[in-house]
Amino acid sequence: MRTFLLHLSLAATILAVRTFAQQPSSARQTEARPRARDLGLAFGLYEPGPKNAITDVPGVLVGQVTLIEGENVRTGVTAIRPHPGNLFQDKVAGAVFAYNAFGKLVGSTQVTELGQIETPIVLTNTLSVFDAASAVAHWTVAEPGNKNVPRSNALVGETNDGWLNDIRGFHVKVSDVLGAINQANDGPVAEGTVGAGTGTVAFGWKGGIGTSSRRLPAQGSGDMLANPDAKNDVGFTIGVLVQTNFGGRLTIAGFPIWKELQPQQTSSLEPPAPLNSADGSCMIVIATDAPLDARQLRRLAARAILGMARVGSTGSSGSGDYVIAFSTTNRIAQDATRTKPLALPSEDALSPLFEAAIDATEEAIVNSLLRATTVYGFEGHHADALPLARLRQLIRAR
Amino acid sequence: MRTFLLHLSLAATILAVRTFAQQPSSARQTEARPRARDLGLAFGLYEPGPKNAITDVPGVLVGQVTLIEGENVRTGVTAIRPHPGNLFQDKVAGAVFAYNAFGKLVGSTQVTELGQIETPIVLTNTLSVFDAASAVAHWTVAEPGNKNVPRSNALVGETNDGWLNDIRGFHVKVSDVLGAINQANDGPVAEGTVGAGTGTVAFGWKGGIGTSSRRLPAQGSGDMLANPDAKNDVGFTIGVLVQTNFGGRLTIAGFPIWKELQPQQTSSLEPPAPLNSADGSCMIVIATDAPLDARQLRRLAARAILGMARVGSTGSSGSGDYVIAFSTTNRIAQDATRTKPLALPSEDALSPLFEAAIDATEEAIVNSLLRATTVYGFEGHHADALPLARLRQLIRAR
Amino acid sequence: MRTFLLHLSLAATILAVRTFAQQPSSARQTEARPRARDLGLAFGLYEPGPKNAITDVPGVLVGQVTLIEGENVRTGVTAIRPHPGNLFQDKVAGAVFAYNAFGKLVGSTQVTELGQIETPIVLTNTLSVFDAASAVAHWTVAEPGNKNVPRSNALVGETNDGWLNDIRGFHVKVSDVLGAINQANDGPVAEGTVGAGTGTVAFGWKGGIGTSSRRLPAQGSGDMLANPDAKNDVGFTIGVLVQTNFGGRLTIAGFPIWKELQPQQTSSLEPPAPLNSADGSCMIVIATDAPLDARQLRRLAARAILGMARVGSTGSSGSGDYVIAFSTTNRIAQDATRTKPLALPSEDALSPLFEAAIDATEEAIVNSLLRATTVYGFEGHHADALPLARLRQLIRAR
Amino acid sequence: MRTFLLHLSLAATILAVRTFAQQPSSARQTEARPRARDLGLAFGLYEPGPKNAITDVPGVLVGQVTLIEGENVRTGVTAIRPHPGNLFQDKVAGAVFAYNAFGKLVGSTQVTELGQIETPIVLTNTLSVFDAASAVAHWTVAEPGNKNVPRSNALVGETNDGWLNDIRGFHVKVSDVLGAINQANDGPVAEGTVGAGTGTVAFGWKGGIGTSSRRLPAQGSGDMLANPDAKNDVGFTIGVLVQTNFGGRLTIAGFPIWKELQPQQTSSLEPPAPLNSADGSCMIVIATDAPLDARQLRRLAARAILGMARVGSTGSSGSGDYVIAFSTTNRIAQDATRTKPLALPSEDALSPLFEAAIDATEEAIVNSLLRATTVYGFEGHHADALPLARLRQLIRAR
């Protein structure tokens, strides 16, 4: 009955077309759902930043466009801007770790060759990834200061929302991508059924966008962790944003939820897949203000996979899992003959950053599930939100 | 004066809009220009196939759309279909070698992960690569037999034709890409100022599309080279297609042309770049009917770089050089649980294929230069065709 | 007091020199300690093979030499032979996944290029890895049938046992490595403080060698899983062997042991490191009789990292984590011009193998900890065995 | 008759055992043979440094041990020290480019992960590579200042000298490797039949060690090329050292020698291979004082392959071609928490360095052939030195 009522209430929201606000149209429901820390869950040693979001890394902006239209369109766009300036002229050091490259991450090879990211990072659905990359290229060309720029290495990732969304309809338009980029801001980040996570499914439940952050202590952890640019006694920050569409055995903060709680088919007529499937993918974006170079950022990116494992990934063949990492501090000016001098942390000094990235990835994935609301969509398919009452019960019983 | 006259004659052709024929609108001029073998040049030990083109590999199709419009549009699309059937349902083993990944090859990471190519390979200009990939995705979704297919790993490469073409105008449309794919056929392949080579520049001269092939002898080279599927006594075939937009010290069949013959500025008003620049890129596609797997195809692809070196590449940072290789014989059915049994050549047996690939790449690059015609384009820039009379003289004098 | 008594009993065993038996000299203690399944723990969906060891994969042999000498030598060798025959003449398809390549895996680049393993896989300590590789080369050259063989791509991995072992003494000799290779057999595999695990430390506890296996069901899982070579109705087998020397937050079968149970310093004089350090490394070897090619084996190898994560890896910079995978069914004869025809599983069909590899890796790591006995060694350092009584308590209380 | 006389004169020299001097025992003959520039040949735009050797890069040291013993031992060791200090404590930024990883380069994976080289780079024969790595590990452990160092990522490459050398005899001893490292100096570098090139064969002729360098102009090439640490007006330096054992179609400074001049069998009893074989390998080491990071060094390393192509490589499967590159300016202290601040050249500014590396590689390979003397060795096999009189004739006739 629960799902039926949710169905009705969602039916009301789907009258809303192309919502360009950072809050999804189903904001009221979303607000009602907790984040992991609201349930008393904690992940690892370090404390989150004030927003517990990727936007805790100074300068990082996020914008999202949610597309819920009629019965069949459940998709969207999430854009991450490494800084508010002209990214082509003032690139950031970046890296990609392709754990399972069964996915269409546009732009990764040049990022690996040059160690630079020169555009916003955009997430969307699998078949719209190319249109989104074209939008990024248009955006680059149109940016003030890029008058003669003849290229743009758009960096666009995706997961497949074809269960809930009419993915073959190519519903993401250039204007949607530009909307997400242009509205990007450094406020709290909407999670769950929003942006590129509008139609995704994880562990058989409704997945979506999630985020989390960590602030490393400046003291007691070695000089490397001290952030000379930060006010007060604060170390570097790591922020993570995920688009969850993968599966396995759902484990929340170490608790094996999958043993007690599994998504149900609501009707024998409904095709079961992918409710219990581990297929699907996960896109992970890591931002930091620590002054890492591209090689170190690739090492950092690789750690996020351990966070996926903690939540229960079983590494299925069809799960295209990529991690993108960038440093807001390590900038490369397009027209300079030399880069500004930069002191890198030693490799050993990276371990706390690695650990923080794993913890924040784990928490971001859990947030994406907790905040997501039940969605009915394409051809009547649906994905239930993780049932909160039962979940609280399981956590208390622990 | 020569260049001025060519300017006039080209001025006539640029009235022609979007030409969907495989022969460029400037066909008359193109026909008049020789291929390398017409000049008595030879490259390596093995003989070319009957067309001396990538289409000598049975089943491989090429289609090109040349966009010459007004004063500023000089670009186009070249599409290579590994076989005439449904590529998503009947994939080919494939690999990418990213020698210098300063370029936007869409689709390479999934090709590397799965060892499969599931779409036509499309070449175009740098800023249109995403629109072209979107077109490929649309084509995949629309193919008969792909009714429920929710994804498409479009494989689209590019070089930057921004010297001659208004690249910031995004002039390649979805219909242009579909046109190239749909008209693809197994006939001779137009070279020079055509398709994705319409606006490219190589070694300061007009570059473009070039192709060549090699047929390995079936006898005297070990059992591996015998092609059991071929009629008569013929071994496996290697075909190469290039889009040349790179530079260095032009060397033709071992002759250091660069010492005697260099492109000139026609006016002190004309910006010199990139006439003597080694920047720019080269896309190389290798087809074979030898039954290689993805790992072996990557090894084969890597050899093409040696062919670039022979023509004089100086490996500049800005030259984004990628090689794509596929086997028409090693097929992977989308819906099969197991692949058909396949016997691979031993690694040692690959050496003749490697040598043939280098030779064919060298010849294809030379063909792209010989067949290209002078082009005037964007903002009055031009690139001269390699002057034939002087070239013949230099070769005779050798 | 416990550790003191153990110290005394170990003091007795260390009179034993170079033990060439597969059972360590401290066999009595080892026998007394349980494997994970003896504690009622289970990992994942699939059942282990009869030995729950890498030797459940038909043909795979393991041999170990344990070096416990005087006060300071605590090291050894573990050798895995993919099949009992001449490996150079009859190679197996193989792959390496370098998750964190801060480690000295000799031989990986050629394995990646050719997709072949042509020697036993040997594990030892960090500084002895080169001497062990030399021993493998000598072994290859001396093998009957290799009369003119002029090369050997020895594949030798390591972790750093310098806390308990006088690693700078280079105590592993050629004869030790040959001993491990030559005594290799397909029986049960000794775990814990044995072979290459004699001096390793994991999660601050004594780590070592661990193993586990999975047999995939032949029915109900699609044709791919059926093993046509197996008697009865059995599917393919996956076997895993680990050398554990890494750290993080110890988690056993989902239970966060690290919260309740942490290794103690026995004296304020003892240097604390690495008892609570996450540094150190993990070597993982995966065998299967499923007919995978090198690319697929690399995908399989990558999944083992998820197993490390489940046990609590925090991915520290210094943890050099490599996975080696091979297929006993996919053979490459040295002198053949073509390989035997082979049908590969489809990529989708790999998912059950991936899941089994993760589960078996998790269980192998836990076995390495459970079976390991307390060791005192180099400069009086020690590492305690995981205390069983307390562990049983924690598991029961769950 | 020529080769017979050379045979006699070499027969005299082979009484000399283990020669620890940087000049080979056959020094007199070697002195008589020219380097490429002595023949009036030039390669590329930039000028060599004063020694035209890798030792033109300030601080770089080379040491070689030549092993010519009895009838069958023709091998040796070449060691390159990036700087004279303690390399473990004061590492250099480094990278490996594995063009064709059919070869046993020990140490490359850690170099790639950490971007650091922490030992001398040693070259030797294929089967001795592991013993040489062990020697490097012993050397590291014994270095003053490394009292507690528990690891050493030895970086040791090889080519297969099994045609002229009794490679299966493992004749390179630890003391030979230590000898090469310890005698390393910054003087001129002996070329040809010396060190790790004592028994190698290239293009069917006697190959060996070769070297060359380039000094980039400080003026007129952009600020990047200016070396602030150099006296006078000198830019950065690139130095290359090669161990040639590969083949193809020998081309010297653009002249197709292979068409006119091919090695002969001296007797029908002599097995022909590998006199006309393209198999075998090439190891290339690039040093620079330009302040590149590991990613940029990998890009630089990749360019050397174009130099191999210019001399005629046909890229055979069996040619294991690796390039190692390091920067003497980009240092990483073992114990520092952060690196010293470093300004990197922009990617565009790398192009002159890339071109210089290609040119120097080409010249170093030619030097290795020109300076090599005829060698008779294992089982009576021989490799002729490139015949100088005929070569001069061919060059003059050009």
3D structure, described in words:
Four copies of one chain form a homotetramer. By secondary structure, chain A is of the alpha+beta class. Chain A has one domain: L-amino peptidase D-ALA esterase/amidase, CATH 3.60.70. Chain A is built from eight helices and 14 strands. Chain A has helices at residues 2-13, 27-32, 108-114, 129-142, 174-182, 294-311, 351-371, 388-396; strands at residues 61-69, 73-81, 90-100, 116-117, 121-125, 155-159, 201-202, 205-206, 209-217, 234-245, 281-288, 321-333, 375-376, 382-383. In chain A, the strands form four sheets. In chain A, strands 4-3-12-11-10-9 form a six-stranded mixed beta sheet. Chain A has a four-stranded mixed beta sheet with strand order 1-2-5-6, with helices on one face. In chain A, strands 7-8 form a two-stranded antiparallel sheet. In chain A, helix 4 (129-142) packs across helix 5 and helix 6 (294-311) crosses helix 7 (351-371). Chain A is globular. The relative contact order of chain A is 0.21. Mean pLDDT of chain A is 88; it is low at 1-17, 19-30, 220-224 and 267-276. Chains in contact: A-B, A-C, A-D, B-C, B-D, C-D. At the A-D interface, helix 6 of A face helix 6 of D.
